[in-house]
Design a protein that fits this description.
By secondary structure, this protein is α/β, with parallel strands linked by helices. The chain has a single domain, classed as Rossmann fold (3-Layer(aba) Sandwich). Helices cover about 40% and strands about 15% of the residues. The chain contains six helices and five strands. Strands 2-1-3-4-5 form a five-stranded parallel beta sheet, sandwiched between helices. The mean pLDDT is about 95. It binds flavin mononucleotide. Flavin mononucleotide binds next to helix 1 and strand 4.
Length: about 200
């Protein structure tokens, strides 16, 4: 079993990363393998709407000169996926949106490859726009037929400068509970044979 956390922030060691790691720590405590994939800060293209993925059906986006295909492969392999993003002008980052558009088309073209995996969004925000960004990520998971575990609050951490989310006790606890719930559900699915133990 594996949980992949995708960091959509260009600040590799910023608030989104801290929040994602807090979730992953709980998951690891339950003996489940984890990985963080650094997406933000890389040059990525948006979907060209060329329809090539629907024709080739090779689990890849035709755009091959960026890291999106690597991320798609990792998403297909994972049993659970966290997508983390800071809020930029009341929404997710450009890199996060490019991933969701391109991965979204590729996995649907190849038979809904993310179906019944677990998915959770994680948001770092200074003040406003968190719910909009959180909803954007959840819309992606829902149309992929994924299962979204909840937490004690929506998965949001408050902070501006790097490390500020460490002072948001409620935000950190939300991440901890999310990790516990994700691990609990993954283990139930493993027992029932839905995911590899
Ligand atoms: C271009 C840009 C736009 C931002 N827009 C918002 C915003 O709309 N609302 C908000 O509360 N914070 C906004 N912020 C602040 C970030 O969401 C906040 O600093 C967050 O903690 C950054 O997370 P990170 O350290 O993972 O990058 C913005 C930051 C940048 C760089």
């Amino acid at each position: 079993m594996k949980v992949l956390a995708i960091n959509g922030s260009p600040r590799k060691d910023g608030n989104t990363n801290i929040l994602l790691k807090t979730v992953l720590d709980e998951i690891e405590k339950n003996g489940i393998e984890t990985e963080i994939f650094q997406l933000g800060g890389n040059r990525v293209s948006g979907c060209k709407a060329c329809g090539a993925c629907v024709k080739t059906m090779n689990r890849k986006c035709i755009i091959s000169d960026d890291i999106i295909n690597t991320c798609i492969e990792k998403m297909i392999e994972a049993d659970g996926i966290l997508i983390g993003s800071p809020i930029y002008f009341a929404d997710i980052t450009t890199e996060t949106k490019a991933l969701m558009d391109r991965a979204g088309y590729v996995v649907r073209a190849n038979g809904h490859l993310l179906r019944r995996k677990l998915g959770a969004g994680v948001i770092a925000v200074r003040r406003a726009g968190a719910m909009h960004g959180f909803d954007s990520i959840n819309h992606f998971f829902l149309i992929q037929q994924m299962i979204i575990p909840g937490s004690s609050y929506w998965n949001i951490g408050i902070g501006r400068e790097k490390g500020d989310v460490n002072t948001d006790a409620e935000g950190l606890n939300t991440m901890k509970v999310l990790g516990e719930n994700m691990a609990w559900l993954l283990k139930k699915l493993a027992v029932s044979g839905e995911v590899c133990p």
